[in-house]
């Protein structure tokens, strides 16, 4: 069958389902969102195993945590939020806000998050009384399709139209492009090429940028507390999370202490500034970035696997490779995003220098994404936020598991993190259900309003 016909038929079914739920009230819509999230929560283990077996990426236990954690927090954020009918009134300005569906949302989902991203996109779409077509990554098509199959079965059991959530069973680039071109709006959580295609589709699009999280560590923090967080974030799911801690920038005076704490927590330290370390760092760099591009076959692999490819045998119990390179920024491929449990370490003499190192590393990729700051000095935190091109700054938290929203911060729970103009995205915040409905504004005349004089208008 012609690919355009395949997508046209899916869109027709999706639109029919959307027209049904467009009549539902807020309570019924929320019930459907809960069903979608609870499906993944209840099947977290089996879906995690499917994802590991199919993609060969990540850590089973971490994927279980992710399936349960994301479904839990996204539903908690959605629950009770207004997305149907009149959703707000500004009495002072005389504006009434009316939510209306977009229609059919097309979603490109990644191999790195083949379970929670389809779930997340579906929950967001349905919250706005839309339907959704999932275009999974070809290397994760089975586990993504099974996730959607389970969701459809549970929606049908609840009396909802089954074609509210659909998934392309045999995805191709052409089918994904057609979906983006023919749907009412698209969300693209994928590589730069697919995000560019989404923005070029002729339809409204929400996209993401690559990660390269820079971590700034201040003088005033306890390294015994901070370093385990830096390692947890870098090691989670073997480093494939875009919010994972990539580079740690420490005060030069604390280098020796930092290395000891890292090693005590299972890091293998390579210092490129000495002869032995230089050879090891060069081999890691060569296998991770052949031709200057991250080797995709290493994505989501363990530290031992990466080291083995570089001809290095790690001691038992090592969780992460920690490299102190000679340089930073465009001069070194290790400044780029590393989708495995490998972290780089840099030192600074002044806070301004720490900011400069992070900024230089962003020039290799990841601009607009995330910065993690560990500090108890508000002035330093805000100096970093004023200077660095990032959309979110997580403070004294594990970036990997908190930058996408958390019970312990105010960022919107999501699996789709937009990166603003720095990352060639239309948004500079976490994409959430609040972005997936139209809002009409009723503007009542402000009868008591008075036009100001020209002198008042043109005065500062």
Short description:
The protein has 460 residues and is an alpha/beta fold.
Tell me what the structure shows.
This protein has 460 residues and is α/β, with parallel strands linked by helices. It folds into 2 domains: 3-208 and 431-442, 3-Layer(aba) Sandwich (Aldehyde Dehydrogenase, Chain A, domain 1); 213-405 and 415-423, Aldehyde Dehydrogenase, Chain A, domain 2, CATH 3.40.309. It has 16 helices and 15 strands. The protein has a 7-stranded parallel sheet with strand order 10-11-12-9-8-13-14, sandwiched between helices. A 5-stranded parallel sheet has the order 5-4-3-6-7, sandwiched between helices. α14 links the parallel β13 and β14. α3 (44-55) packs across α4 (60-78), α3 (44-55) packs antiparallel against α6 and α4 (60-78) packs parallel to α5 (116-127). The protein is globular. The chain starts with a helix and ends with a helix.
